[in-house]
Write a structure and sequence with these properties.
The chain is of the alpha+beta class. It is globular, with a radius of gyration of 17 Å. α1 packs antiparallel against α2. The protein has a five-stranded mixed β-sheet. Strands 1-2 form a two-stranded antiparallel sheet. Helices cover 34% and strands 20% of the residues. The chain has two domains: 48 residues, no CATH class; 82 residues, YaeB-like fold. The chain is built from five helices and seven strands. A hairpin with a 7-residue loop joins β6 and β7.
Length: 147
């Protein structure tokens, strides 16, 4: 486990990484979402979860990787063009739908394998945080390959 950072008053300092030396509750939500998928101290994890939960743009249960946005835009952009929402919001909504309604096509070969959900011809690859099981990160998406 990564140790808790030093305290400044009652604020915890990030001990390592890109934002080392910064106050944890001042970090961007995107980085806090990454933190809760890692092995940080419970104190840092709680700060991250609370800040995400209290944020006006919380989306605290799902994060989409840049790779996923790239893959979706290269393979499935036509699905988005008929909607009035922004691209990022659309991809998050599609991923949420896949998680809730998709068919689990995971192979479960290794304990750390992601969860694969197929919906409407798209396979979504999710990583689920053991520390925060409600949280999911979409690693990538690709077309369902049929034999």
């Amino acid at each position: 486990m990564i140790e808790t950072g030093k305290a400044t008053g009652n604020r915890i300092i990030m001990p390592v990484g890109r934002y080392a030396g910064k106050v944890v509750d001042s970090l961007p939500n995107s980085y806090l979402r990454w933190i809760i998928t890692q092995d940080f101290s419970e104190e840092i994890m709680e700060i991250a979860r609370n800040k995400i939960k209290d944020s006006s743009y919380n989306s605290d249960h799902i994060a989409i990787s840049r790779h996923t946005y790239d893959q979706y835009s290269m393979r499935f952009i036509d699905r988005w063009k008929i909607h009035t929402t922004g691209f990022g919001t659309f991809v998050v909504q599609e991923a949420e739908r896949a998680w809730e309604q998709g068919v689990d096509v995971s192979k479960h070969r290794h304990k750390d394998d992601g969860v694969l959900k197929e919906l409407e011809g798209i396979v979504w690859v999710f990583r689920v945080s053991p520390q925060f099981p409600e949280y999911k990160e979409v690693i990538t998406c690709y077309p369902l390959l049929t034999p």
